[in-house]
What we know:
- With about 210 residues, the chain is mainly alpha-helical.
- The chain is built from ten helices and no strands.
- It has one domain (about 10-45, about 55-140, about 145-205): Four Helix Bundle (Hemerythrin (Met), subunit A).
- α2 packs antiparallel against α3, α3 (about 60-85) packs parallel to α5 and α3 packs across α6 (about 115-135).
Amino acid sequence: MKEFYESSRDYWDSEAEYAKRPDVWKVEAYQLWMSAKVIYEQQLSMMSDGPHQYPAFWGWRVVRMLIAFSLENLVKAYLIQEMGKDSEWFAKEGNLTIKKGHDLIHLFREAGYEIDEAEEHYLGLFSICGLWAGRYPIAKNEHSLPRKRASMSSSEELLQRSMEIHKKYRNDVRVKYGDYWDLLHAGMGNLEYECAERLFNSLLDDLGGM
């Protein structure tokens, strides 16, 4: 009697051949992007008056997580299509090995994309949400947590510190676009979403669209 299941290696090898195609990664990216967009629009609708289809919930970190997964799949599709990275990633039998495979800033640079200051900042935020903040209550270890400002004993001290920070670090990305800790506890602004959308559309165009 034949075995009921295929061997793990045979199954892996057939799936690996499929996964070496950039269009497979592109389809996954598109599905994740549309899922992010649905929740994004739902979150915006919660701010308006009137009846809502779903109970209120805080979904902004989930939106960022899905954006991270989408951009990761799309830039990997580009790396396969334009740089033949699949031969490197699948070199070890039965394994997929991608160095810094969830670091969006690294992946975009590896793909040769010129990202501006705001895009780099938000890619870092999306990576945090993809790694843990969009799905777990705490990071894997203390070094993965974004820096958090210390509490102040009075509103006057808080105001003074804010003034000093803005004066000293006026051109720092953390002041211009927000500290990661602050952003993780806030909704998604227009600039952040526009950066994500621009990166997604640029990659998708370079991959020939859907």
